Structure of PiggyBac transposable element-derived protein 2:
Amino acid sequence: MKTQIGVDCPFLIKEYNRHMGGVDLLDSHIGRYKIKIKSRKWYMRIFYHLLDMTVVNSWILYKRVCKAKDIAPKFTLAGWRKDLAYTLCKIGEVRPKKGRPSTPLQNKITSTRPQSFRPSKDVRIDQTSHWPIRIDKRGRCKYPNCKGFTNNQCSKCAIYLCNNKSHTCFQSYHNK
């Protein structure tokens, strides 16, 4: 004679049965619009399945957000996939800029003269052998934000720097 023994249902089984409908729903949605790329590599199949799962889960979240905001969802699953694919294809494209168009690079005036040499910061602030020397040819002061012309040049750096009562670019340049 057989006797029955009452066994409590394990917690894991209860959890599975409670959420089983969500898994079945996900599988049915994936089955409708599955990526139809065949591959002999097992890891590619897993990748495509994970990609399908991600797309379906994002669509389900989109529907939940629309429901929470009392908005009718605009996209079906097929429309969601189509819009997602279109958006991903547009990632690398350059969008036209708004506003007044700027001049193309070809029309910009390029400097015919090479840029003047500027010493490194270590040489500039070493405080040795920097003497202002007077030169016959005038040049523009190279200190930032100074627009003046001067005949004074640093003997070591060989750049023009103002050195008068109103502009002390020479001292400022060699101390910063």
Residues 11-89 form one domain.
